[in-house]
Amino acid sequence: MEQLTKEQFIKTFKAQLHTDYLVDNNEATAEEHFRTLGKLIKQYVMSDWLRRRDEIVKEQKKTAYYFSIEFLPGKMLQTNLLNLGIYDLVAEALADINVDINVLVEAERDMALGNGGLGRLASCFMDSLPTIGAPGFGNGIRYKYGLFKQRIVNGYQVELPDAWLPSEGSVWETKKPHSAVDVKIYGSVYLAPQEDGALKPIYENVKTLHAVPYDVIQIGFNNGVVNNLRLWDVELPEKYELDYQTLADRRRVEDITSFLYPDDSSRDGQAMRLIQEYFMVSAGLQTIVASYAKMHLPMAKIHEKVAVHINDTHPAMAVPELMRILMDDYGVKWDDAWATTCKVMSYTNHTVLSEALEKWDTGLFKEIVPRIHQIVGEIDRKFVKEWAGKVDTGIIDRTRIVQNNQIHMANLAIIGGHSVNGVAKLHTELLIEDVLKEFYVLFPEKFNNKTNGIAQRRWSQIANPGMSALLDDLIGKGWRSNIHELSKLEALLTESDVQSSFYQVKQANKQKLADYVKKTLDIDLPIDAIFDVQVKRLHAYKRQLLNVMHIIKLYQDLKADPGLEMTPRVFIFGAKAAPGYHFAKSVIKIINELANLVNYDTSLNDKLKVVFLENYNVSLAELIVPAADVSEQISTAGKEASGTSNMKFMMNGALTLATLDGANIEIKDAVGEDNIVIFGMDKDAVYAHYDKHDYNSRAIYDSDPIIKRVVDAFIDGTIPNTHYEGHEIWDALISYNDEYFLLEDFTDYAEKQAYISALYQDKNSWQAKVIKNIANSGRFSSDDTIEGYAKDIWGII
Ligand code: 73E
Questions:
Q1: In angstroms, rounded to a whole number, what is the distance separating the alpha carbons of residues 630 and 269?
Q2: Where do the domains of the chain lie, and which CATH numbers do they carry?
Q3: pLDDT lower than 50: segments of the chain
Q4: ipTM passes above 0.85
Q5: What is the pLDDT of residue 124?
Q6: pTM for the full model?
Q7: Is 418 a catalytic residue?
Q8: Contact residues for 433 (Cβ-Cβ < 8 A; gap 6+)
């Protein structure tokens, strides 16, 4: 963008307020101020945005398209200002006219078109792609309602719709009606032989949807590059309006882009979800192929200019859909279409949980996307034929796409692409050795690892201005553009004034969070206590319950001996449970009632506090993460593919208390064993139990009085105001043999927690570890991760 002065900014800002809202600056609402600033930002980048589009066309740059059913940007104002390099100027200019930039920041609604780590990763990539200058665009759905808003009522989670989208639309998007395309679903299709021997698909009774794109700006950091996140909305096609005569028909169409499915681990088997997947895949690919066609290059070589990434299995229909478009719309023959499709497509697996590996009933699939069903059948048939006689038939039976009347989307994505990656070293190893091992026999060359990363600018400069200013003082400002410069801190680990400066920053961040907790929950938090944080989706494998068990133990210890010496602790939780996930909701209830129990018990002398923060989302994370002393990453080893909050906490100077799972292992490698606290079984120990079937939680319960006392607290009335929840938990732990091995890991966990309490007393040693963590967090930058994708998988840089 052009050089901007404060005076120019103030002038245009005021003028825009007049034009849009007919108000003077001092009468405008925060919302009006925010939208006006957003609009100016869009104007500032417009020429860069257009130039980007033109240069990609003119230079025929190979472009990657990141297809994802989720994007979770949160708020965009600060990121956009920072990346444009005008944050300070705008903040000062606004202050000059008595507008507080923080009030504008608050006025923006979180864009929560994602559930958790998977969607947030996609958004970190959207920030990093333009930052490294790579032509990489997003493709997704413009949900009218994002992830539900969580309220806690009487300790229970209540889900409310998240109407994030103002009636005027998001300020960051541009509607592109002229780029709309039609997507066909339902009906039937048969293949009519043509004179030249080709088969032409003839559709009957289809329903046509009108897909309208909204392009959202993605601004690179200080480099003039603006990429695009294309989100599709559905409209009723005027041409086919007779197909939708009743209000109910019309509503059904509108609903296609109404809701994000609020499930982080298992799919909701609704036809609507399948339609959503096909809708965004088809609309995206039609546009991509059409723009490639404008280059007048051979269709069978589309892989030389286009890469399509399948983020988790949800967009896996991209494989048959690209085949369909190439064959049916552009006349490419099957073999050529298949060869190029496999080179275009690549896939990331995000989880080993079998319930999250999508499978669709063939009947439903055939009903909704009949032509895609045909093509998938043919891909499957050819796959079986190709491998027959070359490998064991068992392998073919288990890797083929169609099995027992189900379509296995991961199999489709693997067979139809050239790359399969996991999201942390251990996770990729597990894919190769276990979950996808038979695919590894067939296609070893496809497998690779890309450890997740985080957009460091948001998780340091924006979320933690106090720490950022300190870093500027200590190591200069270079780290802001080159995060690896954080390693300069290595020379300062033991300097006591540096240590105390980091301590001061942490205390100030803790105070900010404490103020928020006071305001929202009316609980007083002592900031000299250890702030021990676990924020993530609520899931049994993430083991929030292990954390709860430890809190119960501390409570029981303190009740038994009120004079017990203990470093005061504040346990902070934030977590949404999938609405249909009964067990997870019971854990939320238990945490809230445990909080009520301990927070108001004066005999505990403020040594123990428990806080459950309602409606955990990206904005709240930006407040919580910088305030944490301890980062809880305590999943059963082998279950958490990577985790990304672990990286955010580390970068903000929290010590990680972790199992050897996901990216925790790489954090340990980065900081060394002395600067992370590891406990519990590793993946091999967990797998040994699976192999030998020898785990017996009841035996542990019967033989360990401390564990028995803790587990019984769920049912013996210790936690008041609970009903079936405690029994449900007790049963999961004892009657159903504790699927996630909490009891086995408990003793080590409690011991390591005690170690942390002691360590915190030794401020110098603690702070040295804190600084060591920050110094080594640069390697978890999503700029580096995405560079790996761009070079190794997509070949775009
Ligand atoms: O470990 C995280 C990982 O850091 C993993 O659980 C999460 O993805 C993160 C980013 O790689 C994830 N989400 C889903 N699967 N894995 C998922 C599955 C189905 C629907 C929505 C999300």
A1: 38
A2: 60-75+110-452 (3.40.50.2000), 474-780 (3.40.50.2000)
A3: none
A4: yes
A5: 98
A6: 0.98
A7: no
A8: none
